[in-house]
Amino acid sequence: MATWKIDNNHSEIAFKVKHLVISTVTGKFTSFDGTIESENDDFKDAKIDFTADIDSIATGNEQRDGHLKSADFFDAGSHPKLEFHSTSFTHKSGNDYQLTGDLTLRGTTKPVTLAVEFGGIQNDFYGNTVAGFELSGKINRQDYGLAWSAVTEAGGIVVADEVKLLINVEVIKQS
Q: Global pTM?
């Protein structure tokens, strides 16, 4: 069984959500950790575990980041980590896979399915074996208790319920 560890320097865990229905706000987690365990380099039997520190959320606006960390949204004080544990990793065709697992946010665990594109395996400049993946999917923030909501004077929604997940991950095979 090989273990692969996420390379934080070459990975990004991002999300996008509509603001006022007319624009999109992008955020990311800057502190995270993850591993993949797999018998084979095609990852068809992969077991994936991932965590991110809620306090590391970054949207480019300190006031918004503080609000997202508050009890209105992620409640970082009571729920400091986002967690994901895979239940299946299924090869679809070519480099396309489907990852299903349990996502825990704010103490609520729900199943989520992500589309995965396997970028392949290479050796880096230091002799490490590395693999790359791009993942995407959607969740409804309300399903996880991120229920803060507001409406503008004109009746527009301030923050949409649908959150797009955009994840680029490079992992290093451990010796």
A: 0.90
